[in-house]
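Need tokens for this chain, all 247 residues.
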Amino acid sequence: MNAMRNLKVMAAYRGTAYHGFQRQENAVGVQNIIEEKLGYITDSAVKINGCSRTDTGVHANEYCFSFETEHKIPCGNIVRGMNSLLPDDISILSCEEADPDFHARYSCTAKEYLYLILNRPCKDPFLADLALHYPYALDVPLLEKISQDFVGTHDFTSFCGTANQKEDSIRRIEYFKIQKCENFVKFLVKGDGFLYNMVRIMVGTLIFINEGKLAPDSIPQILAAKNRDLAGKTIQAHGLYLNRVFY
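Here are the structure tokens for all 247 residues:
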């Protein structure tokens, strides 16, 4: 019997066609596809551990998963073999041997999310599922300043989708950056963890402030209230990317 190996794999995917990353019984998640192809390569049933759940339509520029196998296939062959079998909207970026106790989810120390907005009057048909089209002016310097109210350790109950609120809603946000690049506005947020829909609600709240629907100084009060009804809308999923994971 071969020794058990624990492998750390980095992937990227376009989430448009999938019901999130997590394995689904009655729909197709990214995990379903990856496990099927890994099973073919290793000639065995494979169950992977993902670093995060992502919602339907959300993308990943960098996603980590780990799995155990007794197969001796080299890591480089896993990358090449998987990329020859996977559909064009999923890619394996790297594979390496990991410590036996490494777990893609529980070993992760932080994540960075990107929310991408196409900010111009006309939409782009080639970006329909990759960036949110927002045709109105965005006051980037103002939103950058306001977004700093999210930075630090807070109870983010007000910024959690009500269907999946957890008892532990304390999270630490390391930074919140907003960058204007030609016709795009990028919202980058790094934290030690995120609640259900948290980034989408944070960006949606900033959009409400930009539109005058909420006061510029309202975020501290919304955080303190622990009331989802006081925050902005849950902005669309297709502009969201899991951008980086940290270990």
